[in-house]
UniProtKB/TrEMBL annotation:
<feature type="domain" description="MIP18 family-like">
    <location>
        <begin position="11"/>
        <end position="72"/>
    </location>
</feature>
<dbReference type="InterPro" id="IPR034904">
    <property type="entry name" value="FSCA_dom_sf"/>
</dbReference>
<dbReference type="InterPro" id="IPR056572">
    <property type="entry name" value="Zn_ribbon_PaaD"/>
</dbReference>
<dbReference type="InterPro" id="IPR011883">
    <property type="entry name" value="PaaD-like"/>
</dbReference>
<protein>
    <submittedName>
        <fullName>Phenylacetate-CoA oxygenase subunit PaaJ</fullName>
    </submittedName>
</protein>
<dbReference type="InterPro" id="IPR052339">
    <property type="entry name" value="Fe-S_Maturation_MIP18"/>
</dbReference>
<dbReference type="Pfam" id="PF01883">
    <property type="entry name" value="FeS_assembly_P"/>
</dbReference>
<dbReference type="Pfam" id="PF23451">
    <property type="entry name" value="Zn_ribbon_PaaD"/>
</dbReference>
<dbReference type="InterPro" id="IPR002744">
    <property type="entry name" value="MIP18-like"/>
</dbReference>
<feature type="domain" description="PaaD zinc beta ribbon">
    <location>
        <begin position="136"/>
        <end position="174"/>
    </location>
</feature>
Amino acid sequence: MQATADRALERAWEVLESVPDPEIPVVSIRELGILRDVRRAADGQIEVVITPTYSGCPAMSQIAEDVAHALDVAELAPYRIATTLTPAWTTDWITDEAREKLRAYGIAPPTGNCGSGTVQAGEQPITFMPKPLPVPACPHCGSHHTERLAQFGSTACKALYRCIDCREPFDYFKPY
């Protein structure tokens, strides 16, 4: 039974690898760090754990539907999908390959590191002054000569920028 269960979990990871983010279809939910775990629950069911990019993310119901559809097509029932808010998602979880895919798609990936790995469990960092964000490079021409037009872009997790050199607008995936 254990060998069969392990194959089912491996197959579930493989299947879910191809589930795209509904807002940015060039990257998978695993590449964005939304897919947190695929495990065997105490009752034997496959449990898929997902974390939203922010607590009010409207795409989470669509992501859950897409995960369910992928598992159904692969005949991996029974399963359940659990959404967890802790630890909170961070742009540090975006893979390097996803950052390149975002850039090629015309979205400037988040710059820097949020330091999400430095906080110990149970600690709550306090920030009195926002740290200055690095200027994002234009995903079209690579120039750092850019300006923010709006704090929010096509979604709440992105800001709207414009390149001053090539004049192209672009979304910037905000680091947090």
